[in-house]
Structures
1.
Amino acid sequence: MQRRDFVRKATLGAAAGVTLAGCGGGAPGEGGAPAVQTQRTIRWRLVSSFSRSLDTIYGAAEVLAERVSALTDGRFQIRPYPGGELVPAFGVLDAVQSGTVQMGHTASYYYVGKNPAFAFDTCVPFGLTSRQQTAWMYHGGGLELMRALFADFGIRPFPGGNTGAQMGGWFRREVPSLSALRGIKMRIPGLGGRVMDALGVTPQQISSSEIYPALERGAIDATEWVGPYDDEKLGFNQIARFYYYPGWWEPGPQLTFYVNQREWDRLPAAYQEALTVAAAEAHVGMQAKYDAQNPPALQRLVDAGTELRRFADDILTAAAEQTTAILEEQAADPTYNRIYTAFKDWKQRSFRWFGLAEQAYAHFAFGT
Ligand code: CA
């Protein structure tokens, strides 16, 4: 009820705003007529990489669609499709680039095969937290760098949510030190998997629906996923007792909305603006939703017998060293190196700032 009222008010507000703008001279190229009367109805399709069961992540596309519709008085309709329905889950970039669909919602690190710099649009191990990533994107030059990278693919990216620091995942037996990791078979994709590999782990790439049975029959000893709220739904706690943290390979992974650049260029200015503010709302809203849903989910898991374990310092130190080696190794690619250099500079300055008031406060207060 509250939400409906809010949406209705926002819609009226937006319509009034557009009309007033029309009285003041009209939208560019509209000859001074009220913009709200001249704008056409547009229908777009958005393909997500995610299933509906990841409701917080998938839900960001629904939030965006709902808000864009409300802000344009229903004239700009975007219909989201879950991963695999129109195009394969990892085919989102290709689908938006080719214009098969106008929009996508995905994680850019799925596409590091096209350029390793795509990782910086999502996250790298021991990289930025959610807040630091958002600050880099919105006010630190990160989004401009990403848009330059994506321009080669005919795509305009917008930050599209963040999970916050993820958990390290579920282990059937304890790994109290670096040596205990050796020989562990763990479901962990991407750069995190490469780092784990260097630490003696055998990384496995397994899709979400196959993780539970693999863990159950002992084909894997451990798995990472997201955090308490999403992990609880997949039931890993029924098989693996030890829940490790932090997920150092995903300290603040960002999702991204992709818009086909030609389609963007054809949008009326007011619709571009609606899409921009709706994307920002979906971006910030996802993190807030996770931050609200993870605490009760964690409590339920602990109440049901899950034991929390922090990764040992020797694991974190070795993993951080291997991460740096891998990130440096890729610097031969000039496009990657330009973004990597800016990332390193931002990270250093941001860590210095967050290492003061935020860290001192968290260190003292969160444990009390
Ligand atoms: Ca993860």
Note: The first helix runs from residue 2 to 23.
2.
Amino acid sequence: MTQTATTYEVVIGLEVHSQLLTSSKMFCACSSDYTRAAPNSHVCPVCLGMPGVLPVINRAAVEKTVMTALALNCEIPAHAKFDRKNYPYPDLMKGYQISQYDMPLSKDGWLMIEMADGTERRIGITRVHLEEDTAMSRHVVDGDGETMSLVDVNRSGVPLMEIVSEPDIRSPEEARLYLVKLRQILRYIGASKANMEEGNFRCDANVSLRPAGSTTLGAKVEVKNMNSFRSVVRALEFEVERQTEVLSAGGVVAQETRGWVEGGEGHTVSQRSKEQAHDYRYFPEPDLPPLALSAAWIAGVRARLPELPEAKRGRFVREYGLGIYDANLLTDTRARADYFEAAVAATGAGRAKAVSNWMLNDMARLQTAAGRDIEDVAVRPEALTGLIALVESGAITSSAARSVFERMFVTGAPPDEVVAELGLTPMGGDDELLTAIEAAIAANPKAVADFHAGKTAALQSLVGGVMKQTRGRANPERTRELLHSRLNSS
Ligand code: ADP
Ligand code: ZN
Ligand code: MG
């Protein structure tokens, strides 16, 4: 009898912590922008966790959390409250974190992800709640070679949103798509910088396996310490493989927390078993009032929700006649979409396709080479449409326009100035063109011979020679015509 190996289904749920973009911290007036601040320069008795002080709820943080929850299709309850989550931790100044337990700001939402083959999957969002970030430890070696730990309290009390997914994700790739989509939405609504490498967007990944077809959940492993999307995918791939091996060998997967270790092939190590799990002894935060969220206030937040990526993409297809692929790229970030619409507004919807082409080809290529986001591109939308108009009117050839654009990208100067600077106005009459044609013929006798031998395709390399000599100023049509009659007459 042959035994068929059991196939397993992968089950993943993600917990994302994302710092909110508010000017002050969650419960005090300290600045929450600590990225370049000297250690312990953004602190006060509240975020230092001194006894006898009182926290005050940051309204902007509540709003941004609710806005995020609405963007994720969550329900907003009429009442919410904060709770104390108690645990001992050197970076936790009060010995507890103010978080939300059984009455969070939102629950029961969803996020659509789109697979490479175009199919969509709906991932449930369990809840989006609000809490505070902890301080940070730095382990340093002092002059005597001894290791010591220093605490920087700047991050303590920075508003932190926790977004918990349902265990609806079925592969590491789906997990990546979920994170990409979530990050895009957070950035669109200005809720968070959502940058994993900078540590303001952090992901714990829960993963388990179950026999295909089973509807009960297997024991899950929570993986921590990933600091890039790539690490999340690698950690999940590693865990899927490890758990498959354990189960295939007839073993049981221990429910535990594991840490991702980046080096080499990468692997996970056990950090804490189920038995060592914390008992957080949650209880309602006595120093803060519960929150009443009126329907009118929620409606107000909903009204301020910006157009989200999917809606924008659909509108770009309808309004500007773009393909879905291009519309997707143009709406990748809100800044890129805004740039596109500013350019189209400056020139008319009839040129939308031309604007899109410039943005997705030459501009995207130069941006990648320069490592520059659209916000920092020197070419203003009106300058780009000015360039498009110059090409359309025949004032410059499209090949010359590409050199002009490259220069504009560097200097930010308007197109007509750059055209003059580079001497790229098209040729007036045929005289200069004929000279260039003679030079191209002289430089490429093989193409001439090929042409006379009946290989008409050889003409194209001569046209190319002329374009090169004239730096794109020659009209390719006219060049071909003149070349043709010149070669046929000789
Ligand atoms: P815990 O009590 O350990 O915090 P939760 O039930 O709150 O666990 O879930 C935390 C995260 O783990 C959620 O994102 C959830 O979707 C995910 N999760 C829960 N059970 C499983 C499982 N068996 N396999 C994979 N992910 C799971
Ligand atoms: Zn403070
Ligand atoms: Mg939980």
Note: The longest strand covers residues 120-132.
